[in-house]
């Protein structure tokens, strides 16, 4: 059982022309700057059932990844540049341009603090993600009380093209600094 989101982080993904995938160092968001509030991962893909003799005999699942909803405390500068490809302005800040562009790819890591376990964290790593829509920007006036507004990001996670890995759940005592690409037991 998990107690709470402990940290949210990401690592930029690079794919060579030969199809080799590498990741940059994991950047964990600072809790007071862009800490994780909620994360939801809705499976993407459909199941198909084949019937014979009036019975379901084969169930096939097309795992197309996840549609992830991520609410953070704030949009930090690294997100503007790394997730959306926005350019830094000489005067400070970021410029969002119109038109069509290929979005940067990254691995998303969500560490959850575990309850009554021999390992401190359960970490979900989604290997190949893009920020599929720009974050909703909501603002409103304060009416005497502190009523914060939080950005929600829509992220599409798909299978890695080189090995079809979608998500990896690991159990760790420390937060990783690099994305682990596991080896499947029994795979040659």
How would you describe the overall organization of this protein?
There is one protein chain. With 188 residues, the chain is mainly beta. The chain contains two helices and 13 strands; from the N terminus they run βββαββββαββββββ. Strand 5 and strand 6 form a beta hairpin. The longest helix is centred in the middle third of the chain and has 6 residues, at 77-82. The protein is globular, with a radius of gyration of 19 Å. The relative contact order is 0.24. The model has no long low-confidence stretch (mean pLDDT 88).
Set down the secondary structure blueprint.
Layout: E1 2-15, E2 21-23, E3 27-28, H1 31-34, E4 36-44, E5 47-52, E6 55-61, E7 65-72, H2 77-82, E8 87-88, E9 94-95, E10 106-114, E11 121-133, E12 152-158, E13 167-172
Antiparallel strand pairs: 1-2, 1-3, 1-10, 4-7, 5-6, 7-12, 8-9, 10-11, 11-12, 11-13
From the structure above, extract its key features.
two-stranded antiparallel sheet, 188 residues, 13 strands, 5% helix
What's this entry about, in short?
The chain has 188 residues and is mainly beta. It has helices at 31-34, 77-82; strands at residues 2-15, 21-23, 27-28, 36-44, 47-52, 55-61, 65-72, 87-88, 94-95, 106-114, 121-133, 152-158, 167-172.
């Amino acid at each position: 059982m998990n107690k709470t989101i402990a940290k949210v982080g990401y690592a930029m993904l690079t794919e060579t022309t030969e199809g080799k995938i590498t990741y940059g160092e994991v950047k964990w968001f600072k809790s007071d700057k862009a800490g994780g509030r909620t994360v939801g991962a809705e499976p993407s893909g459909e199941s198909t059932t084949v019937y014979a003799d009036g019975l379901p005999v084969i169930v096939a699942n097309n795992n197309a990844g996840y549609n992830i909803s991520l609410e953070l405390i704030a949009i930090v500068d690294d997100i503007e540049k790394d997730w959306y490809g926005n350019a830094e302005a000489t005067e400070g800040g970021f410029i969002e341009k119109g038109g069509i562009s290929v979005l940067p790819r990254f691995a998303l890591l969500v560490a959850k603090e575990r309850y009554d376990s021999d390992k401190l964290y359960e970490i979900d790593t989604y290997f190949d993600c893009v920020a599929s829509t720009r974050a909703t920007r909501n603002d409103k006036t304060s009416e005497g009380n502190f009523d914060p507004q939080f950005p929600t990001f829509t992220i599409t996670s798909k299978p890695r093209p080189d090995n079809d890995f979608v998500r990896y759940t690991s159990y760790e005592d420390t937060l990783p600094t690099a994305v682990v690409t596991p080896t499947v037991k029994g795979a040659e």
